[in-house]
Amino acid sequence: MLIRAKESALVVTDIQERLVPAMQAPARTLSNTKPLLHAANENAIHELKQAYKRTRTDEHS
Fold this sequence. Notes:
Elements: E1 9-11, H1 26-42, E2 46-48, H2 56-59
Parallel strand pairs: 1-2
């Protein structure tokens, strides 16, 4: 099976700065994610992103 850029997407889910300390291996997660994003960009692979929207509850956390 051959992976084709036009038929592929990279999904990175919810890497929030304030949640990084709670990750099991934050340095490894971040260091592995950056090259994936770069490769997706270089190969015109779609990136699915969801912006985090602040709420009033977040402001008081």
